[in-house]
Amino acid sequence: MDAAYRFPAEWEPHAATWLGWPHNGRDWPGKFAAIPWVYGEIVRKIVEGEDAHILVNGPAQEARAWRVLEKVGISAERVRFFRWPSDRGWTRDFGPLCVRDGHRDEALAVVDTHFNAWARYPTFKRDARLARRAAKALELPLVSCEHQGLPVVLEGGALDFNGRGTVLTTEECLLDPDVQVRNPGFTKADYEAVFAEWFGARNTIWLGHGIAGDDTHGHVDDLCRFVDDRTLVLIQEDDPADANYRALRENRERLEDARLEDGSKPEVVYLPMPRPIYFGEQRLPASYANFYISNASVIVPTFNDENDRKALGILGELFPHRSVVGIHAVDLVLGFGTLHCLTQQFPKA
After folding, report:
1. pTM higher than 0.85, yes or no?
2. Pick the catalytic residue: 145, 173, 224, 341?
3. Number of domains in the chain
4. Per-residue pLDDT tens for 69-125?
5. Which of 66, 196, 215, 292 is surrounded by the most beta carbons within 10 Å?
6. What is the CATH number of the domain that holds 267?
């Protein structure tokens, strides 16, 4: 039976990219003043090939955002502001997840995945309304992600799709029975039924643990990503003493046995890790896998590290028809996320 919906791959054409303009200074203690300028650089690269849909809390924040965008040379016709208050700025997880109609691929709908701040933070009600507001503003159908009559909690960063029927995710994020439990009692079979029904992904590749320092408890977009419908990039750590070494080795072994939706083995390309970055005693989730694929370019977080150039070179070979550009993310990662966490693609209808 054909799926009712299909979540398009990130490299498929976009009409726009959603971003939430930064306003929660607690996400970047002592560094917030630098963050809007990083956003300005992100938007500057995105609008080379598509529009930017930017969420702001009101007219005052819109004016501040526009002053930054003007100074970095961004044209007004490529930016649309939406005055919708939010709790935080991690648009990957609460922004509108758009699926295509499985029977009429040009038609779009927004899936409400009932965001609850990663089952970790108490403030999320504004963020949780964004999918509904976007569907109404864009005149798109809104569908509620449900399983056996109950709403399902998911975040965009927990899933990565090849657009042909396979999804990547981690057991740490979705199946841990005690920590940041999104859907109590859910099994692999429950999640796989959800992925098939609401996203057209009848094949799931389950990885194990995510990376150290990730406060989402295992999002896959810091770990492993599709770069085309048959190729994955997986980060690796060569230092046996590093906290990530064992988990990344196990994920590498899992991918040796993984299969795509047609039964074939995916090609796996390895990305390095930067040196660990800390804020006090807290390790931060610095990873080159948190890149974002826009129409014109692939923007990649960089960390003033000797592996920056190596990661950019690997991704440059994998995306020969897009420019691959580094964005300085040492300050950005203090918020426990970087470029992919901040963006959400809006597919072209």
Report:
1. yes
2. 341
3. 1
4. 999 999 999 999 999 999 999 999 999 999 999 777 778 999 999 999 999 999 999
5. 292
6. 3.75.10.10
